[in-house]
């Protein structure tokens, strides 16, 4: 084998190794890109879910406030009714 053939063979082997490393890097990069895309999709789902929960919490809080206000009004009316009954009983 001549020196040129040996040099060519060495260069071809180096090229093959470099191409193999490049293919491995591309496969690794593709895996990371897919993982990133999955994480991004999951993050978007969590953001949407958080917004839905926040909306539900706001509605529940508003309903609780209305119930508290109603309970306070009922209590006030009961006090008025009891005072009226007491006055009637005193006057009787």
How would you portray this structure in words?
The structure is a single chain. By secondary structure, the chain is mainly α. Helix content is 97%, strand content 0%. The chain contains 1 helix and no strands. The chain has one helix at 3-91.
Gyration radius, in Å = 39 Å
The total count of strands amounts to 0
Gross morphology is rod-shaped
Q: Tell me roughly what share of residues is in helical segments.
A: over 70%
Could you give the order of the helices and strands? H
Concise synopsis of the structure shown:
It contains one helix and no strands.
Would you spell out the secondary-structure blueprint of this structure?
Elements (H helix, E strand, L loop, with lengths): L2 H89 L1
Tags for this entry?
single chain; 92 residues; 97% helix
């Amino acid at each position: 084998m001549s020196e040129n053939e040996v040099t060519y063979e060495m260069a071809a082997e180096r090229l093959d190794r470099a191409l193999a490393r490049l293919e491995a890097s591309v496969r690794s990069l593709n895996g990371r890109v897919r993982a990133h895309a999955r994480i991004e999709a999951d993050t978007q789902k969590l953001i949407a879910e958080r917004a839905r929960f926040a909306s539900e919490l706001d509605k529940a809080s508003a309903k609780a406030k209305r119930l508290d206000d109603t309970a306070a009004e009922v209590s006030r009316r009961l006090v008025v009714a009891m005072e009226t009954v007491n006055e009637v009983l005193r006057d009787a």
